[in-house]
Amino acid sequence: MVVLELILVFILQFEAGTSVKHSYLYYTPGHEAVLSCKLPSDTSCSMITWLYNGVTSQTETEVENGKVVTSSVRVGRLSLNTDCSLVINNITAEDAGLYTCRLGSQPADSDVAVYLSVLTISPSPPDVDPNRDDEVTLKCSLSTYRDLLPCKQDSIRWVDETGTVLRGEGVGYESIRQMSCVSVLTVKHQRGHNRRYTCQFVDEDGVKIEAEYPPAFKHDYVYITVGAVVGVVVLLLLLLVITVVLIKYRKRTKETENLQKPVKLHDEPENNLTYITVSYDNQKASQKKQAKEEEKVTYSTIMTVMKTETENDPSHVYSCVSKQQ
């Protein structure tokens, strides 16, 4: 085991000495990682190759001649930016490792090396409710290219919501000594107490990456969900008020129209009166009398309205003759 570690250290030092450019990136799961190739802006991505090395010595090709290799286990999550940077969507702990950008047939000493590390918090049991009075064990682990070598002691630490570093045993928690790149913290949830525990990876330059428990995005999701529900309720109330106003307005308009419209009774008979005035001369009267008097007679007929089978019976027609005085 010691020999293996020495060999690995030699390989890493050799790689560090031959690589002109290198960088270290730290992420938490679920984010998008962008690995820069640091090439001139006029470089064609069709000449770019991206290689990957995990904890094993086997080298895998992720991008060749500017195109993602279909045999890659990350093929659905890989893409290239316009500057030839390698983009990894929804990263996981298994994505940690060494990524090498190589330009065409350039010598290896011109490669660009990117060391990707992923910090993960795993609760046990995994489905524990952080809002209930319960005990949960949190395991914080850093997945990196140097997994075969132990991380420095106290490089992975726990802090609470006040920023206090948690060591040993305290009120509501118990911290287990860091082993390699893993640190374990056992906490006791208390209902009504918004306790938050943060795992940090630190080096001589300070905090490189940190992850929170409970994850912040869960709380943001709750706030967003509540806000969406409130918005829907307000919208429904507004639609209800508008509907009631429209119904009242239509009802009032209809009542106004009914008042202005003349009402016709169903029993009121239609005006079926016919009048005719007939003038005649009395031939037997003297001419003097004819000139003096001209008799006029007015005839009228009345049609009664009866909704019976005899509606068209002529016997229901009445006549009236009147002689003007």
Structural write-up:
With 325 residues, the protein is α+β, with helices and mostly antiparallel strands. The chain folds into four domains: 17-117, Immunoglobulin-like; 120-217, Immunoglobulin-like; 218-260; 274-323, no CATH class. The protein is built from three helices and 20 strands. The protein has helices spanning 2-18, 216-260, 287-292, and strands at 21-27, 33-35, 48-53, 59-64, 67-68, 78-80, 86-88, 97-103, 112-124, 135-143, 156-159, 165-166, 169-170, 173-179, 182-188, 197-203, 206-213, 274-280, 295-303, 317-323. The protein starts with a helix and ends with a strand.
How would you sum up this structure in a few lines?
The protein is α+β, with helices and mostly antiparallel strands and 325 residues long. Helix content is 21%, strand content 37%. It folds into four domains: 17-117, Immunoglobulins (Immunoglobulin-like), CATH 2.60.40; 120-217, Immunoglobulins (Immunoglobulin-like); 218-260; 274-323, no CATH class.
